[in-house]
Design goal:
heterodimer; A: alpha/beta; Rossmann fold; B: mainly alpha; two-stranded parallel ribbon; 18 helices; globular
Chain lengths: 91, 458
């Protein structure tokens, strides 16, 4: 069971879009994962034991966990590449 | 007419699921998906109702007691954007605002009045809120629609002007952030930046910090903000210790639960948002336009994070200092970054300037939200978001654009209307001139702040 944190500014709008798409992606690829949303400000306290952080906001801090910029889930540009990165990180 | 009234009387938790179900079917999303989206949005409304009553029924009386004991004001709780957005969606304007805001965008694009293709459907709630407040204040549905239209035009234009900041400072090429409340702060920041630039000595002061997040990170945690405020207010209200502790945990719960329940409203809107996005994508692809997205994208920048942390206590201090202010900042504190993110970009990450312009922005926000308590409460009661008492919100109840439109139609607070109206108009004109002179974020100044490292997907 992998753990994925999906972060954005307020943990409502963009992270919901990204989290739903990530859940679908993982389901299709048979990866069992717990996908949770949070605010960017909560990342440092929630990053323990997490396998991957996907943030729609650009974070420039190191959390000791792989971080993937999830802007593509919102804008649609470069989506396949981002999906590929997520799958590679979680495999 | 009776049928319409009957449906409206069912309340937003039943009415909106019906609207979403019908819209979903019209957009060919299938019965299952549409039904699920509809029920989910209803769940969101039930959830936010529970959380808002947890907030207003517990923090409300405590704030009143505190206000009476210390002669402080601060008796009306700010429910924040998680509390204000459901009121907007549940209003009469809410059911028609999304197509109107999109239509305004499409018309502006067709006439080349903007380069922003706004696919950020969720944040149309800001324009909706303006419409709902205007229509509540004037008792006119159509003036409310006018409010939605004007606010939308304004936001898309500001989105255009701020593209250089989003591109060069935040490193997000091809993107605009035409946000209903984040963008209104920018004209003030542009003016203040120009003034500070002219003062000898002051113009040289520059603070950037990566340490603030490491050292103060904890005060930005929603659970900490909630519990500390609960403790302090319970204590100042003269509550017994046991009761104070209970209040602290209740307020931590409010802070953590708010986004969790509002999320369901967002999930319910997704089929519509996706359909709208696809339509806009198809229609305006490859025309050298900017995609309009949520300001949440700006909130990860380390200087924005630092500024957000500084403005948690600063906003509370400002609220105490404003004479006659009744609004107790609460719901928006955890995401105060939305108010200062553009200022951070405009000041190139210089926190010294951000503190100055941010203080002005928060002063105006709290001042306005205090004047809007009456009509905000009326909207809250009408939409069933609250059952009694009073409400306020900084986002969007403290926005000058909402305030100016409402006051222009009602003329109740003439002096503040003139002061805020003239100051804001001046700032917008000044910002437009700076934009035309390519000076909002020009390349000829220091370029040290441009982030290169994390372009899309890497």
């Amino acid at each position: 069971m992998k753990k994925v944190l999906v972060a954005c500014g307020g943990a409502v709008a963009t992270s919901t879009v990204a989290a739903n798409k990530i859940r679908e992606l993982l389901k299709v690829n048979n990866i069992k994962a717990d996908v949770q949303q949070c605010r960017v400000s909560e990342l440092s306290s929630k990053s323990d034991g997490v396998d991957l952080i996907v943030s729609t906001a650009k974070v420039d801090r190191d959390y000791g966990v792989p971080v993937i910029h999830g802007l593509a889930f919102i804008s649609g540009i470069g989506l396949d590449k981002t999906k590929q990165q997520i799958l590679e990180t979680l495999k | 007419m009776n049928i319409l009234q009957y449906i409206l009387d069912l309340g937003p938790a039943v009415m909106l699921p019906l609207v979403i179900l019908i819209l979903g079917l019209l957009l060919r999303q299938g019965l299952g998906k549409s039904l699920r989206a509809g029920i989910t949005i209803g769940v969101g409304f039930v959830g936010i109702g529970l959380v808002i009553s947890l907030l207003t029924e517990n923090l409300g009386p405590a704030a009143k007691d505190m206000a009476e004991r210390f002669n402080l004001g601060l008796s009306v709780v700010d429910v924040g954007w998680p509390g204000a957005s459901p009121m907007a969606w549940a209003s009469e304007i809410g059911t028609v605002a999304i197509p109107i805001a999109i239509l305004v965008n499409v018309i502006m694009l067709a006439f080349k009045m903007t380069k922003v293709v706004n696919v950020d459907i969720w944040n149309i709630w800001h324009m909706t809120f303006t419409g709902a407040i205007v229509s509540t204040a004037t008792d006119s549905f159509w003036l409310g629609i006018v409010g939605v239209i004007i606010h939308s035009i304004f936001v898309y234009k500001l989105g255009d002007w701020l593209v250089p900041v989003v591109d060069k400072y935040f490193g997000l090429p091809g993107i605009a952030v035409p946000h209903g409340s984040g963008t209104w702060t920018a004209p003030f920041a542009v003016v203040i930046d120009a003034i500070l630039e002219k003062i000898p000595g002051i113009r040289k002061i520059s603070i950037t910090s990566t340490k603030i997040e490491e050292k103060l990170g904890i005060i930005g945690e929603p659970a900490i903000i909630g519990s500390v405020l609960g403790l302090v207010i319970g204590f100042l209200a003269g509550y017994p210790f046991s009761h104070t502790l209970q209040l602290a945990i209740q307020m931590a719960a409010v802070m953590l639960l708010m986004p969790t329940v509002v999320k369901f409203i967002m999930e319910g809107l997704m089929p519509i948002a996706e359909a709208a996005r696809e339509m806009l994508d198809k229609r305006f692809q490859g025309q050298n336009l900017y995609i309009g997205l949520d300001p949440a994208l700006l909130l990860g920048n380390s200087q924005v994070v630092a500024a957000s942390l500084l403005f948690v206590p600063l906003t509370l201090v400002i609220a105490i200092l404003i004479p006659g202010n009744q609004v107790l900042p609460f719901g928006d504190l955890a995401t105060i970054g939305f108010f200062v993110s553009y200022a951070v970009g405009i000041h190139r990450g210089n926190l010294f300037r951000v503190i100055i312009s941010g203080s002005v922005i928060m002063f105006i926000t709290i001042w306005i939200s205090n004047m809007m308590v009456g009509v905000h409460t009326k909207l809250g009661l009408a939409t069933g978001a609250i059952k009694s008492g009073q409400v306020a919100s900084l986002d969007q109840g403290g926005s000058p654009i909402t305030f100016i439109l409402t006051e222009l139609f009602t003329l109740k607070n003439l002096v503040p209307l003139l002061v805020i109206g003239i100051a804001y108009l001046f700032s917008i004109v000044f910002m437009y001139i700076q934009y035309k002179r390519n000076k909002i974020y020009s390349d000829d100044e220091v370029e040290g702040e441009v982030y290169e490292s994390t372009s899309i997907g890497r």
